[in-house]
Amino acid sequence: MISIRLKTIASLIDYNSSVIDIGTDHAYLPIYLYLHNITKNITATDVSSNVLKISLKNLQKFNLENKIKLIKSDGFKNIIQRYDIAVVAGMGTYNIIKILNKSDIPNTLILQSNNNHYLLRLHLNSLGYKIEKEIAIYEDNHYYIIIKYVKESEVLTTEELLFGKSNNLKYYLYLKNKYQILYERAKDQKFLDYISILNKIIEKIPE
Ligand SMILES: C[S@@+](CC[C@H](N)C(=O)[O-])C[C@H]1O[C@@H](n2cnc3c(N)ncnc32)[C@H](O)[C@@H]1O
Question: Using only C-alpha atoms, what is the Rg of the chain?
Fold first, then answer.
């Protein structure tokens, strides 16, 4: 059983598109995509040789070692083929930004950063990518933010840069509570500003 997080990422993949999963780790996402007939045109990569040994073992369990390409690569460095979609998930924003620092990256990106979503949204906006869909999911006591980007410019408000476009009331209430606790600890005005922005966002969400 794969995680809700990876299933949500899989739900954003267009059928029969060519996909590269950068930093695949156990190769759970590529295996899921293949077995669920979402696409069979998949490359899984990782920077770590040790990790790739585990990825290969997992592919072998499903007889997929000749169906899903496995490549050792730091980001796109060893990648020649062009893909419709790149998935970069389960890493920090600085690493994701480093990986995307290349001229011919795919027109569709599915990104799940573990931190600094403001910087990620700001950076992708500056690269000319538009948030097509943003989903906040709760799993294992944690909110994960998954964003599907397409190559198209868009203007984002400060509110959208800070808190995204998930429209998930429970997530915004969770953030409000988090900033309330942080404010009580640090008495930093910026947390009150965040709470006030979140209140405005929450008001606009239909019940
Ligand atoms: C926490 S795992 C996430 C695995 C999977 N993407 C997921 O979301 O469940 C991060 C993986 O990214 C790999 N990684 C980190 N930096 C990378 C890079 N620059 N290029 C390729 N893989 C990288 C690590 O070796 C590790 O296997």
Answer: 18
Residue pair 12/32 in contact (Cβ under 8 Å)? The answer is no
Q: Which atom of ligand 1 is nearest to the CA of 114?
A: 1
Q: Confidence band (pLDDT; 50, 70, 90) for 103?
A: confident
**Six token digits for residue 43:** 């490359």
* Closest atom of ligand 1 to CA, residue 74: 20
pLDDT digits (tens, 9 = 90+) for 112-151: 999 999 999 999 999 999 999 999 999 999 999 999 999 9
- Structural domains for the chain: 4-154 (3.40.50.150), 167-207 (no CATH)
Q: What is the largest CA-CA distance in the chain?
A: 57
**Ligand 1 and 134: CB distance under 6 A:** no
Dihedral pair phi/psi, residue 132, rounded to 5° = -85, -40
Q: 169-187 burial, b if ≥16 CB within 10 A, otherwise e?
A: eebbeebbeebeeebeeee
Please tell me if the CB atom of residue 48 comes closer than 6 angstroms to any atom of ligand 1.
Answer: yes
Tell me whether strands 42-46 and 69-72 are parallel, antiparallel or unpaired: parallel
Span 37-47, pLDDT tens digits? 999 999 999 99
